[in-house]
Structure formats: structure tokens, C-alpha cells
Design goal:
The protein has 191 residues and is mainly alpha-helical. The chain has helices spanning 33-43, 46-54, 80-86, 95-119, 124-128, 140-152, 158-189; strands spanning 61-64, 67-70.
């Protein structure tokens, strides 16, 4: 797969070996690579979809004939939801999977899934820019996450606190992050 193109049509340069950072490698030393591929193929089958998105029969859901019913206490517990709404993978959506997802996440959840599929996108810049060991000493993500979570639950006034948050983030390593990412982006544009 070729890297994305720049706005002017020139080819992008992919510094990472893969266009995304989520991948599975089967080593040449694997005892039985066919079994591994078979397992991955199974994950995309109806039974695999039930396991990934509904869990374990008897523990997370009950199966009566062809009808799968997620147990009430297990609704909203599947970690796989995070992947299909963040664009990490494009899940094969069919009626069987939508039925399972609607039980766990409701109609509003499916509306959000549809929205993320229509409007979500990969962050191509973060895929193309290399990691920076210089940033290892900074904890920029927890500051961002804390602000975001407080904003979501209404614990802060975003308009009143935004400028202070940005200033604090920049002082805590954000300026270095901006400098490194800008330099790397500009270097790629000039090649």
C-alpha cells in the first residue's frame, strides 16, 4: 500500500513500515502459520464476530437457536467497540453483527458508529512522523485526557479554562512537541 499523497498530489513518504501501526506478524519460526491464519479468518466469521463483539456464550450471552441475547450485566462491556469506532479497523458490518452491537450499545451507539464510519479518518500525519524519544519525559497525554474527561462530564467551563490548559500543556512539553512535529512535517513537505 502506498503512503497517502500530499494535497498537491506528490507522493507521501511513509517512515513507518506499515500505513497503520496496528498489525499482526506471523514469524517464519511459527510452528504452524496456517493455524494462525485460520484463527484470523475465523475471527471474521459469524462465530468469530460473536466472540469478538458479544463475548463467551454462557458467560456474556445466551444463544437460543440462531438468536443471540447479550446478558443485561454484560451490555456495553465489549472492548472491541473501541476499535470499530476509532477507525483502527473497518469491520465487516452485516445484519448479524449490527444485531449484536445494538443489544450492547443501543440505537444511539449505532448512530455514533455510522457517524464515525462516514466522518472518521486516520490521522495521516501521526502515521508518517517518526517517534521522538525526546518527548519520553513529558506526560502530555494525561493532561489532555484529564481536561477532555472533565469537559465531557461538565466538571469544567471549557471556554473559561481553555487558554490556561493550553498554556500549561505548552509549558509542560507541548512547545517541544509542536517544534518536533512541525520540523518533521516541514522536512517531509520539502523532500
Amino acid at each position: 500500500m502506498t503512503p497517502p499523497q500530499w494535497v498537491d498530489g506528490t507522493p507521501g513518504k511513509n517512515i513507518n513500515a506499515m500505513p497503520v501501526r496496528h498489525w499482526i506478524a506471523i514469524s517464519k519460526d511459527a510452528g504452524n502459520p496456517k493455524k494462525i491464519v485460520d484463527l484470523l479468518d475465523w475471527a471474521f466469521s459469524p462465530d468469530g464476530g460473536n466472540f469478538v463483539h458479544a463475548g463467551i456464550e454462557g458467560m456474556d450471552y445466551e444463544l437460543t437457536g440462531d438468536k443471540l441475547t447479550v446478558k443485561p450485566e454484560r451490555k456495553g462491556k465489549s472492548w472491541a467497540w473501541r476499535f470499530i469506532t476509532m477507525g483502527v479497523q473497518k469491520t465487516k458490518m452485516d445484519e448479524q453483527l449490527l444485531y449484536v452491537l445494538e443489544q450492547s450499545w443501543g440505537k444511539l451507539g449505532l448512530q455514533h458508529l455510522d457517524f464515525s464510519t462516514q466522518h472518521g479518518t486516520y490521522d495521516e500525519i501521526s502515521m508518517l512522523i517518526p517517534p521522538f524519544p525526546e518527548l519520553a519525559d513529558y506526560d502530555l497525554l494525561s493532561q489532555r485526557d484529564e481536561f477532555r474527561e472533565k469537559a465531557i462530564i461538565g466538571a469544567i467551563d471549557i471556554d473559561a479554562e481553555w487558554d490556561d490548559f493550553v498554556a500549561r500543556w505548552r509549558r509542560s512539553g507541548g512547545d517541544e512537541w509542536i517544534k518536533l512535529y512541525t520540523e518533521s512535517y516541514n522536512d517531509m513537505q520539502n523532500k
